[in-house]
Amino acid sequence: MATQPTNLEREFSFFEQHRVEWAQQHQGEFVLVFDGREAGFYGDYESAFRAGLEKFGSQSQFLVQQVCAVEPVFFIY
Amino acid sequence: MGQVSFRSGPGDLQQEGPRVRIIISAPREEIDEGRAVGLEYPDPINVVALVDTGASLTVINPELARSCKLRQTGFAKVSAAGNQGLYPRYAACIKFVDNLKGFDVIPVVGCKLPQQSISCLIGRDLMHRWRFTYDGRTGEFSILD
């Protein structure tokens, strides 16, 4: 039986569907996603995280993801 | 702005790498808000971190993320030891035992680290705020923030 995606995986899937569109206006910014909708763009991770806590509370799971047309790969050597 | 110097001797520095002690927890605002609605959070945890110029991101052991009850906020595509995949990204607060400025809210990636004595790799995302000096001849390194 396939495992069900978590809330955050669903939010990430929504992000993936819109990343190219959002990158046209918000490349490099951090998007806040909650409940299958975009909830704002922020200049840095910290601001987006704080906004998520303020808007949705500590018991809600929200996504903060940097907007890039192509997902960057981070290397650990 | 402060400078902290660490001396361990040439052999130890070569063998162990530049290590610092950090104190990691969920961000303060999250703890305050969570506690206000009855959630419990552990005390901040003091662990050894390796300053790793080869890591573009700061990485922690997944067990540490669970122990600190860090909130997952997303994913990062990471290539480590030839394997590439999506890893969880958490919001954390990192302070330093030594006299360096801490980070109130920063993203860290959960990825199993091979060396048990190291729980965190401090990557270049945190190092961008530092001048980092490594002197292999004297076995000393220093951080200016």
Short characterization:
The complex is a heterodimer of chains A (77) and B (145). Chain A has 77 residues and is of the alpha+beta class. Chain A has helices spanning 7-26, 45-56, and strands at 30-34, 37-42, 63-66, 73-76.
Model description:
The complex is a heterodimer of chains A (77) and B (145). Chain A is an alpha+beta fold. Chain A has 2 helices and 4 strands, in the order αββαββ. Chain A has helices spanning 7-26, 45-56, and strands at 30-34, 37-42, 63-66, 73-76. Chain A is globular. Chain B is 18% helix and 46% strand. In chain B, the strands form 2 sheets. In chain B, strands 2-3-8-4-7-6 form a 6-stranded mixed β-barrel. In chain B, a hairpin with a 2-residue loop joins β5 (71-80) and β6. The model of chain B has no long low-confidence stretch (mean pLDDT 94). Chain B is built from 4 helices and 10 strands; from the N terminus they run βαβαββαββββαββ. Chain B has helices spanning 10-16, 28-36, 62-67, 124-127, and strands at residues 3-7, 19-25, 45-51, 59-60, 71-80, 83-96, 103-110, 120-122, 131-135, 140-144. The chains are: A alpha+beta (77), B alpha+beta (145). The A-B interface holds A 8, 12, 45-46, 49-50, 52-53, 57-59, 61-65, 71-77 and B 27, 29-30, 33-34, 37, 39, 52, 54-57, 59, 71-81, 84, 91, 104-107, 109, 111, 121, 123. β4 (73-76) of chain A pairs parallel with β5 (71-80) of chain B, so a sheet runs across the interface.
The number of distinct helices of chain B, counting runs of at least 4 residues, comes to: 4
What order do the helices and strands of chain B follow? EHEHEEHEEEEHEE
Q: What proportion strand of chain B?
A: over 45%
Element-level helix/strand string of chain A: HEEHEE
Number of strands of chain B: 10
Write the layout of secondary structure elements.
The complex is a heterodimer of chains A (77) and B (145).
Chain A lengths: L6 H20 L3 E5 L2 E6 L2 H12 L6 E4 L6 E4 L1
Antiparallel strand pairs in A: 1-2, 1-3
Chain B lengths: L2 E5 L2 H7 L2 E7 L2 H9 L8 E7 L7 E2 L1 H6 L3 E10 L2 E14 L6 E8 L9 E3 L1 H4 L3 E5 L4 E5 L1
Parallel strand pairs in B: 3-8, 4-7
Antiparallel strand pairs in B: 1-10, 2-3, 2-6, 4-8, 5-6, 6-7, 9-10
